[in-house]
From TrEMBL:
InterPro entries: Solute-binding_3/MltF_N (IPR001638). The keyword RNA-binding does not apply. Belongs to the bacterial solute-binding protein 3 family. SMART domains: PBPb. Residues 25-244 form the Solute-binding protein family 3/N-terminal domain. It comes from Marinobacter vinifirmus. PANTHER family: ABC TRANSPORTER SUBSTRATE-BINDING PROTEIN (PTHR35936:SF25), MEMBRANE-BOUND LYTIC MUREIN TRANSGLYCOSYLASE F (PTHR35936). This is Amino acid ABC transporter substrate-binding protein. Keywords: Signal. It holds the Pfam family SBP_bac_3.
Length: 246
C-alpha cells in the first residue's frame, strides 16, 4: 500500500537528506513490543519507530502504521498489504519474499527468562524437556529455530508469554534482552535471566518484495547514514537503553 505523489527532486543524499525522488506515504506494519514499538491510543513511539521517523522526515516521506500481531504482519508483508516492517532478523526463509534494506537497529542478546530454579538454563542442552515460550513468527538463532526436538508454546505478544510462564504453562521464555526485561518489569513478574544466552544480530528495516518502496532502498540507506552522522541514531539508542523501566 504505497502512495506516490510525483514531484521531481534530486536524490536524498544530494538534498541534505530532506527530499527523495518522490514524496511517499509508506504503510508500516507494527505490533506492540516495548521498548521497540510502543503502541498507545494517543501515540506510537519506541526505539524503532522514533529512528524510522527521523529517517523518513529527511526523505520527505509520510508514514502510516497498521497494527497486527507479529506473525500476521509477516503474512501481510508477503502479500503486499503493507510496505515495511521494522526490526526483523535476517534469515534465508524470509529473504525469499522480503527485501532486507538496512541493518538499522542494534543487536541484542537472546535471553532465557525463568521463575523456578529448576528451569534455569545453564547450557543449550538444558532446554530439552522444558516448555519454551516463543513469539509467533519469531526468529531467534539458527540452531534453536531449526531444532525439532524442543518443546515450544507460542503467543502473539511477549506479555502473553510472560503471563503463561507465571501461570506455569511454560517453563522458560526466550526474548530479546530489552523487550524481555521491559515486559517482565511492566507486568510485575520477577523473572530471572538464565546464565545461558545467545549473542544477538542486527535487526533490519525490511520491505515487501511487492512494494514499490523497494526502488528506494538506496534512499533508505542514505537516510540511515545521515542520522548516524548527525548522532541521532546513537542518542535514540542511549535514550531507550538508559531510561528506567516502568
Amino acid at each position: 500500500m504505497l502512495c506516490l505523489f510525483v514531484l521531481a527532486a534530486a536524490p536524498a543524499w544530494s538534498q541534505q537528506g530532506t527530499e527523495t525522488v518522490e514524496p511517499l506515504t509508506v504503510v508500516v506494519g507494527v505490533d506492540h513490543a516495548p521498548p521497540y514499538r510502543i503502541l498507545e491510543s494517543d501515540r506510537k513511539t519506541g526505539l524503532y519507530l522514533d529512528m524510522f521517523e527521523e529517517m523518513t522526515s529527511r526523505l520527505g516521506w509520510a508514514v502510516e502504521y497498521r497494527e497486527a500481531p507479529f506473525r500476521r504482519l509477516q503474512l501481510m508483508l508477503q502479500q503486499g498489504e503493507i510496505d515495511m516492517m521494522l526490526g526483523l532478523v535476517r534469515n534465508g526463509a524470509r529473504e525469499q519474499w522480503m527485501e532486507f534494506v538496512a541493518p538499522a537497529f542494534p543487536p541484542e542478546r537472546r535471553l532465557f527468562f525463568y521463575l523456578d530454579d529448576a528451569n534455569r538454563v545453564d547450557r543449550y542442552q538444558d532446554l530439552y524437556g522444558k516448555a519454551i515460550g516463543v513469539l509467533e513468527g519469531g526468529s531467534y538463532f539458527s540452531r534453536f529455530d531449526k531444532d525439532s526436538e524442543l518443546m515450544r508454546a507460542s503467543a502473539a505478544h511477549y506479555e502473553n508469554l510472560m503471563l503463561m510462564m507465571q501461570k506455569g504453562r511454560v517453563d522458560v521464555v526466550i526474548a530479546p534482552e530489552l523487550v524481555g526485561l521491559y515486559t517482565a518489569k511492566n507486568l510485575g513478574i520477577e523473572a530471572r535471566v538464565s546464565p545461558f544466552f545467545v549473542p544477538g544480530e542486527r535487526s533490519w528495516i525490511v520491505v515487501s518484495g511487492q512494494s514499490p518502496a523497494v526502488r528506494y532502498a538506496d534512499d533508505i540507506r542514505a537516510a540511515l547514514k545521515l542520522i548516524e552522522r548527525e548522532g541521532i541514531r546513537e542518542n535514540l539508542v542511549l535514550k531507550y537503553l538508559e531510561q528506567p523501566l516502568p
